[in-house]
Design a protein that fits this description.
155 residues; alpha+beta; seven-stranded antiparallel sheet; 4 helices
Length: 155
């Protein structure tokens, strides 16, 4: 495995999996400044309430918080600024056509390093209703209890 293939996950948006059905996943680059990359390497990143928007054929990530780098002084940028995502034009047009449909959203699922490049995994998501959340929680707890029972039986 070469250095370009190594993947190091920095942050995941677990709330997205709770609030949305993830239908498809896409990889995008992100436009960052040097101090932001250093801060992300330190793991100071929050994706909790972030979302993506398509404006004039370009895709942007909103609400992603990258804490200021401690040694960055005057070079630090606004932690909540809107950042541009880098994707192929045909992918952006495809995603925009889905977003125009009812109930679809673009949600960042994770941020990771692929080699030395920062990548964002963007999910095409459909919102969950309250009863969907309850059923997925019940399903998860049932699966956990089955695994626990099997583990006790094996001992």
């Amino acid at each position: 495995m070469s250095k370009l293939d190594s993947i190091k996950t920095v942050a995941q948006n677990k709330k997205a999996y709770h609030d949305y059905f993830v239908e498809d996943k896409y990889e995008a680059g992100i436009e960052l400044f040097g101090t932001e990359v250093k801060s992300i390497r330190a793991g100071k990143l929050n994706l909790k309430d972030s979302w993506c928007s398509v404006v004039e054929g370009e895709i942007f990530i909103n609400g992603m918080h990258v804490s200021p780098y401690e040694q960055g002084n005057i070079f630090n940028r606004d932690p909540m600024r809107v950042r541009k995502l880098l994707m192929h034009k045909r992918e952006i047009i495809k995603l925009y056509s889905y977003v125009k449909q009812d109930g679809y959203s673009l949600i960042p699922l994770s941020v990771y390093f692929r080699g030395s490049n920062v990548k964002v995994e963007v999910g095409l998501c459909k919102g969950k209703k309250l009863y969907d959340k309850r059923s997925s929680d019940a399903e998860r707890s049932a699966k956990r209890s089955i695994e626990r029972a099997l583990k006790e039986r094996q001992q």
